[in-house]
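Running log. JK asked me to keep both predictions on one page so they can be read side by side. First protein, sequence followed by its tokens:
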Amino acid sequence: MWAHWEVPRNINAERTNMNATLKTLLPVMSVTALLVAGNLVYGQASAMPGLTLADDLKTTAVPLVPGYVAKHPRLLFAAEDVAALKKKAEAQPELWAAVLDSAKRATASPPTPEVVTSGETYWRIERVESGALAYLVTGEKRYLDGAAAWMVAHAREPLWGNDYRPNLDLEASWYLYHIALAYDMLYNDLDPVDRGIIRAGLARHAKAIYDSFDPAARKESFPFDQNHTYIPATALTTAALALLGDVPEAQDWLKRAYAVMRRCRYALGEDGYYYEGCGYWSYALQWHVRYADLISRATGEKAFDLPVLRDSWKFALYLSLPGAPYAFDIGDTGKWVGTQRAAVLPNSFAMLWGEAAALSSGAARTTGDLYQARKAEHGYPAAAFLWFDPTVPPTPLEEIKPYCHFSDHDVVAWRSDWGEDATCCLFRCGPPEGHLALAKLAQMKDWTMDPGHVHADIGSFWLYAKKAYLATGTGYTSLKWTRDQNTLLVDGQGQATDGSYWNALGFPYEKLNQARIDRVHLADDYGFASGEFGAVYDRVAHDLSLRRSVLMTKRWLLVVDEMAAPAEHKLTWICHADGEFKPEGTAQVARVAKAGLAVLTLGGAAVKPTMGPTTVDGGDGVGEKRPTLRGYQLTLTMKQPAKAGRLVNLLIPLSDREEPPEVKAASCNGDTISFALAWPTGQAETVQLDLKPFQPAAGAPGPAKITVK
């Protein structure tokens, strides 16, 4: 499981103060002008939230479909759907077996009061949902009795989660959501006494979350982008829908939760990219899918028709890798076991099936199937079973282009193909929560932007090839340092508020928003992207122009960095790897099992190389500082400061014991980079890259000419 984010109580005021400072630095524009300039694709103006949650609550109404309150079950399916679920269980034995396995675990003794209160195993509450579903499909009373006993044991406890934000945060939300679903499914079969105990427990804990969202009583603004807001809001929605008709206050709970989620949904990016990385995509974004499922059924709205849900498959697919660690470890992704990198294998990818079913998306179905083949869903089996729709045909993978530009967040993913031996490249050069967040932040005055799991990695690259992760990330860290990423240092210093848990806060988002990819050419033979990101170093160097261009092919990755500034500066180029860098001829080579990464400097400013282990501030809590070894790094630092400079480096994946090619006739001056490679196999390759700006057009030739003989 992904550890939840720990926040000391005295940090909240600091976050709010930083956000207030950030907002004063936004351009003075009308909301309408900002929205038009941003070209928002969220929806019509009527769907956009107001200035504050309090404003929204004045006009919010949640129109339920006729007859919704009159019956149970109603949240995820109706009583008349049970017959179809029985047939589905027969047709999908693998998915159904996982549900039964989870349900059987709920037939054992329920957790003790101490375990319930601590929330130390809060994710296991899913078992009551599986138990309820198993009872409805099989009719076996042991599943009813087991689920009911677990629900009663939890409902009796007044405290859910006693660490961070008792009764309000992740532990309480998991309990509330799954118990509410099971209560709805089993409503007609629960012992009346048990039903009353469970109903009272749900109401008590729903009211606690409801009160926490009271805009009149709340002293702080809301982190609508954070899972610590939308997970409780989704849980409150679920409990409210389950208790409608039995608890009069449930109507108010639903209205407030609906208004909060409207703002949370609006804060999300517009291109399918999830800003916190693959780990939190799995852990957190599923709750937006759960909410969309519930509210679509309750109101008839097309709640899945949201960019981040409609295109979520792109994030899951293009950030995946064909082999270990199976996903780029961008953001707070990548748990390590000691000094060894652990695989990234999400256990809630079934949300892709939910999106596929709701949107008739063959691509989402394909991506969900891909993850299921890697590691079958066992963490949330009831959701996987219910969301999977075999009538949505998967899109053949070969029909999906193996490259993508996430234009809101300015992340480019390019890979040579979908095969196991593919070369996969990633380049990020955009603001932490996307370009359109600038307008949204101005529009929602009560939004505290909180990108706590974003790293100081603007301008970074990642590389997987030869069935190995070669240019890597350093995983989940507490303090976010630029030095831990494959990007640049300016005079030895990093981006934004370098070294903070919240690297992007306390630094003007308008500056971060100036980081953007403005030249892109993606094709089957190569990919090219170029971005400017000098403004993110404004704390270190004013009026700095810093551009990184990457040329991506199956055989290598070319990285060109260009600096221009009114004052002299030194750049430091950084590359991380899981193997130790050592000199081999004119290259610096990091070798891992059966593969290697060679870095060759082709030209530009004279640099001093330094190689050694990487030590990060490990941990997943605010203020936690555990020096931890995470692989190795190569740094190339300009020997002399300058007002203008260029660094040109070539990264070459190597097979086991393969030697790097010989570089010939490299020219790195002017607008053109050119070089030739003499490969050990006897092949000769020539490359010419035009760095001048261009306007991409369909069918137009790209900026590079590559010939292999």
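And the second, directly underneath as requested:
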Amino acid sequence: MKRSVFSFLGLISFILFSFLSSSNLFSKTLTVDVNLKRPLITVDCLKCHEDDVSPSGFANSVHGQNGCTSCHVDIFDLEKHEEGEIVPGKPKCGLCHQQVCKEYKKSVHKVLAHMDCWACHKNIHTLTKWDGNKKAIIMKCTSCHEKKKYVTSGHAKAIIAGNNDSAACSDCHGLHNTKILHSSVYKYPKQAREFYTRTCNKCHANKELMERNNKTVISVASYKRTYHGKVQELGYPTHVAGCADCHTSHSILPKNDPNSPINERNLIKNCSKCHLKANKNFVKYFAHPDFKNKNKYPLLFWTVVAMDALIISVLIFFWFHTFLWWRKSYWEKYKRMISGEANKDAELKSMTFIRFKWRDRILHFVMMMSFFGLATTGLPLKYPNSGWARVIIGFLGGPDVAGFLHRTSAIFLSACFFIVVGLGIHFLFFNKKIKGNWKERLTGPDSFWFRKKDFQDLAQMIRWFIDMDDPPKFDRFTYWEKFDIMAVFWGMMAIGISGAVLWWPEFTSKFLPGWVFNIAEIIHSEEALLAIVFIFTVHFFNTHFIPTKFPMNYAIFTGRITGEELIEERALQYERLKEEGKLEEVKTSYPDILTNLISGIIGFAALTVGLIFIVLIAWALFKH
């Protein structure tokens, strides 16, 4: 009896609703029965389908303003439908939900599972408007997909507890546009890694969201400072670990949870997925280092401070030195030209002397090419966010090829370093042509080692810059040339040792804790940057761009200097060679035209590439 009463009331309400629908006030689709010669209204359908569709439920649903034929558009003849001649097909959801259907047709649920809309929206006739509560999404997705992994995660627990900021299935995978790769990680590893890392970054890079939920705000930025993050930024996610590789994709648990992959007792197993020989030292590496946090990471903080101080002090001093030198040298050159003194030593100009032996020139060439190789393959990792970084890595063939070329260049540069060390030992202890014992040779005029006169020369040079003294007289090597050599020795030790630590981390971890890798990354990166900027600005000026040498000094390529250069730039060496009767021994012929041509091509190419790198670095710093 009660059921009849409610059905009657529902029928009455639907008669009213159907009347409004037939007047096209609410109906989006109007179907005319060819036999009745009038629009089909919902009450016509409910005469037979009252047991299938609740009149009141449908009236209060999100589709309640639509007539039945808004979806079942193929029902145009009620009599034929009642007789079974017209069987309704699938509802045409796309008539209204065009964009959603367009996305859904490409989704994994449609393409692989062949699921229709009502596979998820089963209660289509009583479906109410979603209130935004993500619990409904979790319940819907986990009705088919495995609950265990996600529901036990921190994300799901937060949503169940009422925190709608947390990530539900749709936040990562979308509601209707779930990609095929999301369920086929092994088929699409590159796309999957990009997807998971990009999805994680979307929320975890949102400072306001993280602060509101009492979560760390540096997880994304700190990850991007590591090798993993930099290679990801360059567009090669399959080569390194992304967010899901360490934290998993669904069962994401806090570090203190014993089941978490980043829990202390699970770290070795987790890291061993990529680093097969990971041990307890290896897992002490900081995957999310915060260099600014002095309290939590004091060693990293002070390493960054020390390296920044080194870079700033060296560059500021030598850039200032360079500016003063350029001003003074340019002014002196101008005065000589207007006074007619420029050509007074025509006889000396015709004389040529050996400055560098073949051995020195070959070593310089190999070192120069190795340095360019290291800069080309290393700078993109230093500034992975710059557009040019991706272009260079792509041109080289990807990070694997770039890494191989980087290490090959490092081997050649290291070989040069050890050859120079060997030559230095020979010079100090075994070279019979050099007078004196090893201490006298170390502080003698042919040595690269600093002596008291070098500091006196620096002081006098500065006084000359500001018009307070005459320029100092130099011997075979000037103080800035010695600094170049000593800087190479320091740089080779700093860059070389840190590079070896990063090249063989699993071997290094047998002896040292993993946080040493973080320090090695800082030293390797910052010292390399200092070397590149110093060589391509200060060294280039001292050697090539000084007004008396501009546009290029050929000496290191031809091995020769003119008599005028020897007397004016290395007066003490000239006087010493003349006094010892060795001037004729170092006298030689002017380089032939082919040697000069090749020297010019190599030199100008090197200068051009070096200056391009300075522009790229400036671009990256400005963008940052």
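Observation for JK regarding the second prediction: The longest strand covers residues 352-354.
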